[in-house]
Write a structure and sequence with these properties.
The chain has 453 residues and is an alpha/beta fold. Helix content is 24%, strand content 28%. The protein has 3 domains: 181 residues, FAD/NAD(P)-binding domain, CATH 3.50.50; 127 residues, FAD/NAD(P)-binding domain (3-Layer(bba) Sandwich); 119 residues, FAD/NAD-linked reductase, C-terminal dimerisation domain (Enolase-like, domain 1, 2-Layer Sandwich). The N and C termini lie far apart (62 Å).
Length: 453
C-alpha cells in the first residue's frame, strides 16, 4: 500500500508516525512545500527569546532521520492538484520547476493554514511580517536586536499576537497591540482574567489598542512607518500580522467538498467526500465535546489526534475522531493561564445556555508564606444550569497550576456534573496545594448558588 502525506506539521507528522509505529514497511511519500520539515510555530517564542538557541531544533523530525526509517521525504516539492478518479496527485518540484504525477492508494492532506493578511493599503510595505514558520522566525529574530526598530505594532491579540508582543517588549521595544475585540485574549479568557493581564501588558511597555480596526499601513520609501486605525495612528518600525489564520485550501476547490471558511469537510473517520482521501489539521473541523457539534479549533493537540486516527483507519482499524474540549494554555510574563471548553464570553456564539462561578484563592494553606511560593490563583467554572453539566473552565496564577485544566477537560468529555466535581478526589499536601482543590471549591460554590435560586 502506497500512502502519500501532504504537509509536515503536526497532523502530517503524526500520520506518518502512526503508520510507522504499526506497519513500518508501509510505502510512504511525505511532501513538504518548504525546505524544512515539521517546524513547530508553537515553539517560536522560545526561540525568539533565546530559550532555544538553534532554530533548526524547533521541530519533530528531520528529513534524514525519517528517510532512515524508510519514509520517502520530498522537500521543496508542492502537491498542486489531486485527481481522485485516477488516485493521482500532481507534484511541482520547486527546485527545477518540473512537474510529475504520483499514484496513491491512500492520500492524507495536512494542508494547514496560512497567516491571514489584512486587506488594507500598504500591506505590501517592507517590515510587515507574519509570525508563522521557520523563515519568519529567522527574520523576526534579527529584528529583536535591530537598533533601527524601536516601535513594534502587533495586529491581533490572540495567542500568537500576545507572544509576539511579549518577545519584543522583552527585547526593549515599545509595542502596540491592536485588536478589534474589546480585550486582549478575549476568545480564550473572560474579563476577570483579561483585566489583570491587560494591566500586566501595560506594565511591560505594551499598549493594548483594543476595539480598533486597522485602516492603513503608512509607509515612506517603501517601508512601513505607522499603522492607522479607525481611532489613532501608531508609529511603527515593524508590523507583525497575527490576526488569525486562513485555511490553505484554495487549491482544492472543485476537487474536495469545502465548507465555511474554506475548511475541508470530513466525516467522523476524517475521510473527505472523495474515496481514500483524508484531511487533518487546521483546515478541518473537530467534534467539540461541550456542544457535540463540530468547530475549527486550530491546536497542535487536535491535529496530532487526527493524524493518529487517520493512520489507524488507513491500516484497517475502525476509529472515529474523539470529541475534544479545546484545551490550551499560555504564559504572559509572570502569569500562567489555561482554559478549556465553553466560557461565559463564548457561550452565546456557541448557542449554549450557561452559568459561571468565579473563585479567588491561594495555591497553598494560609500558613505557607508567599516567599515559599504561595500565591493567588483565579478559577472560573462554567456549567449548564439546566442539568449542572460541566462545560468549561479557566485558571490563572503566577504559579503554574494550569494542569488543573486537564482534569476539567476530562470532566467535560465524561459529561460530569457539578455534583461529581464538588467532591472529586484530588490529593492534598501543603507544599503543593489546599485541602480542597480549587476545582472542588468552585463546584461547591456553584451548587450553593443553584440551590439559592
Amino acid at each position: 500500500m502506497k500512502v502519500i502525506v501532504v504537509g509536515s506539521s503536526h497532523g502530517g507528522f503524526e500520520t506518518v508516525r502512526g503508520l510507522l509505529a504499526e506497519k513500518p514497511d508501509t510505502e510512504i511519500q511525505w511532501y513538504e512545500k518548504g525546505d524544512f520539515i515539521s517546524f513547530l510555530s508553537c515553539g517560536m517564542q522560545l526561540y525568539l527569546e533565546g530559550v532555544v538557541k538553534n532554530v533548526n531544533s524547533v521541530r519533530y523530525a528531520t528529513a534524514k532521520g525519517m528517510r532512515a526509517k524508510g519514509v520517502n521525504v520530498f522537500v521543496h516539492q508542492e502537491v498542486t492538484h489531486v485527481d481522485p478518479d485516477k488516485h493521482q496527485v500532481t507534484v511541482h518540484n520547486l527546485d527545477d520547476d518540473s512537474t510529475r504525477t504520483e499514484n496513491y492508494d491512500k492520500l492524507v492532506l495536512s494542508a494547514g493554514a496560512v497567516p491571514a493578511t489584512i486587506p488594507v493599503p500598504g500591506n505590501d510595505l517592507q517590515n510587515v511580517y507574519a509570525m508563522r514558520g521557520r523563515d519568519w522566525a529567522i527574520k523576526l529574530k534579527a529584528k529583536t536586536v535591530d537598533p533601527d526598530v524601536e516601535n513594534v505594532t502587533v495586529i491581533g491579540a490572540g495567542y500568537i499576537g500576545v507572544e509576539a508582543a511579549e518577545v519584543f517588549a522583552k527585547a526593549g521595544k515599545h509595542v502596540t497591540l491592536i485588536d478589534m475585540l474589546p480585550r486582549p485574549l478575549a476568545l480564550y479568557l473572560d474579563q476577570e482574567f483579561t483585566d489583570i493581564l491587560t494591566e500586566t501588558l501595560k506594565a511591560h511597555n505594551i499598549y493594548p489598542a483594543s476595539g480598533q480596526a486597522v485602516k492603513e499601513f503608512v509607509g515612506q520609501n517603501g517601508k512601513v512607518t505607522a499603522v492607522k486605525t479607525d481611532q489613532a495612528e501608531y508609529p511603527s518600525d515593524l508590523v507583525i500580522q497575527a490576526a488569525g489564520l486562513k485555511a490553505n485550501t484554495d487549491w482544492l476547490k472543485g476537487t474536495l467538498e469545502l465548507g465555511k471558511k474554506g475548511l475541508v469537510n470530513v466525516n467522523d473517520h476524517l475521510e473527505t467526500n472523495q474515496p481514500d482521501v483524508y484531511a487533518v489539521g487546521d483546515s478541518t473541523e473537530v467534534p467539540f465535546a461541550p456542544t457535540g457539534k463540530k468547530r475549527q479549533i486550530a491546536l497542535a493537540t487536535n491535529a496530532r489526534r487526527q493524524g493518529r486516527v487517520v493512520a489507524k483507519n488507513i491500516l484497517g482499524h475502525d476509529m472515529t475522531m474523539p470529541a475534544i474540549s479545546g484545551s490550551s494554555a499560555l504564559s504572559v510574563f509572570d502569569y500562567h493561564f489555561a482554559s478549556t471548553g465553553v466560557k461565559q464570553g463564548t457561550a452565546d456564539a456557541l448557542g449554549v445556555k450557561s452559568a459561571s462561578v468565579f473563585v479567588t484563592d491561594t495555591t497553598q494553606p494560609p500558613f505557607v508564606p508567599e516567599t515559599a511560593g504561595n500565591t493567588k490563583v483565579y478559577f472560573k467554572l462554567t456549567y449548564d444550569p439546566s442539568n449542572k453539566r460541566i462545560l468549561g473552565a479557566q485558571i490563572m496564577s503566577k504559579r503554574d497550576v494550569t494542569a488543573n485544566i486537564n482534569a476539567i477537560s476530562l470532566a467535560i468529555q465524561g459529561k460530569m456534573t457539578l455534583n461529581d466535581l464538588a467532591y472529586a478526589d484530588f490529593f492534598f499536601q501543603p507544599g503543593f496545594d489546599r485541602p480542597w482543590n480549587i476545582m472542588n471549591v468552585a463546584a461547591q460554590k456553584a451548587l450553593k448558588n443553584e440551590q439559592a435560586k
